[in-house]
Amino acid sequence: MKTSHKKYLQNIKSDFPIFSQNSAWKNLVYLDNAATSQKPKQVINSIVDYYSSSNANPHRGVYELSVKSTEVYKSSRQKISKFIDCKPEELIFTKGATDSLNGIAFSLSKNFFLKNQAILITVAEHHSVLVPLQQLAQSLKLKLLVVPVNSQGILDILEYERLLKTNDVRLIAFTHASNVLGTINPVKELVKIARKESPSSLILLDACQSVGHLPVSFKDLSVDFLVFSGHKILGPMGIGALVAKKEILEKLSPFSFGGDMVDTVTINKTTFASIPRKFEAGTPNVQGAVGLASAVDYLQNIGLSNIRKHEAKLVKLTLAEFEDLDFIRILGPTKSTLRNGLISFNVNKVHSHDVAWILDQQNIAIRAGHHCAMPLHHSMNVSSSARASFYVYNDESDVSKLVEGLKKVNKVFS
Ligand SMILES: Cc1ncc(COP(=O)(O)O)c(C=O)c1O
Questions:
Q1: Domain extents in the chain
Q2: Among 309, 388, 338, 342, which residue's Cα sits nearest to residue 149?
Q3: Domain 47-299: which topology?
Q4: Percent of the chain beyond pLDDT 70?
Q5: Considering only CA atoms, which residue is closest to atom 15 of ligand 1?
Q6: pTM for the model
């Protein structure tokens, strides 16, 4: 399948029931993939299969069906950890990226920071990074330092370096690819600077808009934490991951307590299980893990480099088309190689909600609003934006329909 990926991508929609001939959405131009992706039948069927043939509470039973469910859960973790290039015990299943980030913030609130230390983030962070870390900083009276982006939506690396040099930073968090600007941050360069200027800092990477869109290796990027959500990469909702270095997870206190995460319990004392179970209290989301593992299979069959190429081609085409539309203002870099597969923009004098509404009349689904990044929008002096985001099942005809749709938006409002 890898060799004929172009042909495969051409026919890919037939794998997605939501676009099938008997679906009410068969003609929908779905361009809200940065929010969530549609699901192929392989993923849907894997969940049906799990409940039809393997369902029991894992880890708890000695009977064959429970052992089978445990095996399915374990093999899903193995597959997903291989995909992200970490050890299986370094991958903690969570409800999604937001859950992972809240978990990290909770665990780091225990005996990690000293007085007057700082957390460093960028202005381009999603609220699910910003808000847990802002709350953590406020409760422990830590400084929250913010690296700006320039007018092209590119991170100010000199300011990043200066802030690290002049503060006692203990935690650094940044996004791999912005869900508004589309900018792909130079992670390796940022990590190199951090290790030099702030060697005792932990580095957290929000990989929600990069995993599943381009090749991402936890080992190679050499960050301490990495988070992502399954539902954005063809998997089901309610499953995601917190990936962290083994030696860090071993020291870190759990963020959720209860059954399944313990070794011994007395009325006065609990000792915890080894990783990853220490971080997975309660009955696990086995169907979520199964669905995500199936999504990983699907993505790997196409090839992550092919997906990257496919999205880059669509973004390049859209940017070129937008150049001819003088009523469009693009947020983020105008060079497609600096971007992932999404473009945020504003239509002159038209609110983004109106843009989305008129496009919806033409069967085109885009995102409108602040995309959970209000401080970033404020820093660019806009209150909101419209966003088109591509994935494997989009093609050039979707770009043409978007462009025609936007011409109509402009006509209606001028
Ligand atoms: C960059 C980024 N980080 C974090 C999140 C939060 O993901 P979730 O809502 O799946 O927890 C999103 C979701 O839009 C995102 O785009």
A1: 5-39+303-409, 47-299
A2: 338
A3: Aspartate Aminotransferase; domain 2 (3.40.640)
A4: 98
A5: 208
A6: 0.97
